[in-house]
Amino acid sequence: MGDFVIEKRWARTTGFTAVGCILIAAAVINYWPILNNTLIADDHVFVNAFRVTSFSGLDKLFTMQSPLFVRPMTMFVFWVHSRLFGLNPWASHLINVFLHGGIAFLLFCLMKNMGAKKPTAFVAALLFVLTPVAPDAVTWSSGRADVLVLFFMLLAMVLYGVYLTKRSWAAFSGAMLASAAALLSKEQGYILIILLPSMDFLFGGIFLQSGIGAKKGLPAKTRLILTDAWSQLTDRGFLFRHGILLLLICGNVILHFAILGHMGGYEDVPLFSMPRIGSVRSTFRTMLSPLNPSDISWEVIRALRTYTVTLCLVGAALVVARWRKTNLKARRLFMMMVIFFIVSMLPVFTPFFAHGLSQGLKNSRWLYSPTVGLLAMMVIALLEFGWQRRTWKIVAISILLLLVPVYAVGLNSNNRPWQRAAAINYSIPKQAVELAPEPPQGARLAFMHLLIYRDSTITGYGFEETIKAAYGRDDLDVIWVKKSEPVPGPDTEGYIFDYDQENGLLRLVKEP
Fold first, then answer.
1. Distances in whole angstroms, Cα of residue 47 to Cα of each of 80, 123, 141, 433, 448
2. Radius of gyration, CA atoms only, the chain
3. Cα–Cα distance between 95 and 132 in angstroms, integer?
4. CA 254, CA 204: separation in Å to the nearest integer?
């Protein structure tokens, strides 16, 4: 009997490891073309700034970006990366890609541990690896905050699920540490105060092996469905567990107020804003078909949107029609992913609902976390709520896997603007060094007609650090002349460069 249990555990561990390797390999293969991208825009600000920060100066991780946000865990990862690899862009991109594959694996583990069948969990994880919405968070190194917060949120949920299953306090401690890391990665980690208690309400009774039901001597069948909110709320263990989580969140809010004077976030994004119907509509249209019309025809974009909407509607019909015929864990898992989708949208949120996200995919990293919920809901509805006959499973999985080549092509297409941006960020500094190889100490270098955004990609932000890194000098006074600012006249001190956006050439207009 003991040998059988060991073999079963070994097979389970081997199976999970194989799935993890497949998902991470899929991420690396599909993001391989961008691994040689240069650092872009804010990447230089992060990597170069932390490269010169010593271990004794790690308190700067809390304050270095204080005008914008407090994300010390994200900054710590940048610090470790910059200390190990310097300005090597290949390592920077690979870190994000591995984290992306790791998130897909955590999604698989979470769904499988909460009752999903292996094909359901694997298809959802594979679609997330290939989703075309991810490049803004994954391909751009500065999107690491979005990748890290989702990684640690899912890790916290997986570990908390282990706690609910085995009542392991080691797993609970790990869940709290992962929650703290999520909170320190990005403000979106606050939604854990909804996600983890929801796991208690939905799965606490199903996984109950000791505690409320056992203490009251209830039969197994009664304990199986013991998930009512009142029983959970009156359980001292529940209050203790989520009291710790609440303390972590309150401490993080106090930290934000102490450093920033408000709860973090970009200064040009309001904490509260009235929704606009057009903005909400455009955001959801983009989420259903995250393809950039600069590289993909509108016909393909509309076709993918129609296909995705059709899958969602069929899934919704199955959920309604077959709710009582589906097992309890599948119903609770679907509800959990609905909650995940809704609450992950809320902090995104004001930009989402007030300003909208266009098909150009600018700031599409806001959709990175909600996409997990959307894909999981769609796959669960079709595979768990559909008929469990072999024929239906084959048809449903085939229909879902038709998205795989479309997503792979779309991902490659959405990465191309970032490759162009990387080429620009490599070309301009190189040309500047060739045109003005040895500027005097403290020289001023002014650049005109630089790009800020083109489609989904950033090229202008962080440009000052890019030029300083190219020269290897921090004494230079680099100026990026924005459109709203007057063009430097002939009496302007220093060097003036003009960038031709058509042919990609930099011209030295004036030198001292």
1. 10, 35, 9, 21, 25
2. 25
3. 19
4. 31
Question: 137 and 143 in contact (C-beta within 8 Å)?
Answer: yes
For residue 358, what pLDDT band results from cuts at 50, 70 and 90? Answer: confident
For residue 56, is pLDDT > 90?
Answer: no
Under 8 Å between Cβ of 431 and 506: yes
> Which residue has 């282990």 as its token pair?
162
Quote the longest CA-to-CA distance of the chain.
Answer: 88
- CA torsion, ordered 491, 496, 499, 504, to nearest 10 deg: 150
Beta strands (DSSP E) in 439-494 are 444-448, 453-454, 457-458, 477-481
Please state, in angstroms and rounded to a whole number, the distance separating the CA atoms of residues 393 and 131.
22
Cα 510 from Cα 495, distance rounded (Å): 5
The string of DSSP letters for 127-145 reads HHHH-TT-HHHHTSGGGHH
Strands 444-448 and 495-500: parallel
Cβ contact 352:293 at 8 Å: no
Give the residue ranges of DSSP H helices in 273-367: 277-288, 298-321, 328-345, 349-350
CB contact at 8 A, 186 and 149: yes
- What is residue 458's predicted lDDT score, i.e. its pLDDT? 61
DSSP 486: P
Between residues 209 and 77, which one has the greater pLDDT? 77
**pLDDT tens per residue across span 400-428:** 999 999 999 999 999 988 888 888 888 88
User: Contact at 8 Å (CB) between 128 and 371?
Assistant: yes
The SS3 call for residue 124 is helix
| Integer Cα distance of 243 and 431 in angstroms | 57
Instruction: Please report the sign of the dihedral spanned by the C-alpha atoms of residue 244, residue 250, residue 256, residue 258.
Output: negative
What are phi and psi for residue 447, nearest 5 degrees?
-120, 130
pLDDT (tens digit per residue) in 7-40: 455 556 677 788 999 999 999 999 999 888 887 7
Backbone angles phi, psi at 453, to 5 degrees: -125, 140
**Which one, of 391, 371, 385, lies nearest residue 124 by Cα?**
371
Show Cβ contacts of residue 478 under 8 Å, excluding neighbours closer than 6 positions. Answer: 444, 445, 447, 463, 464, 467, 468
Q: What are phi and psi of 351, to 5 degrees?
A: -60, -40
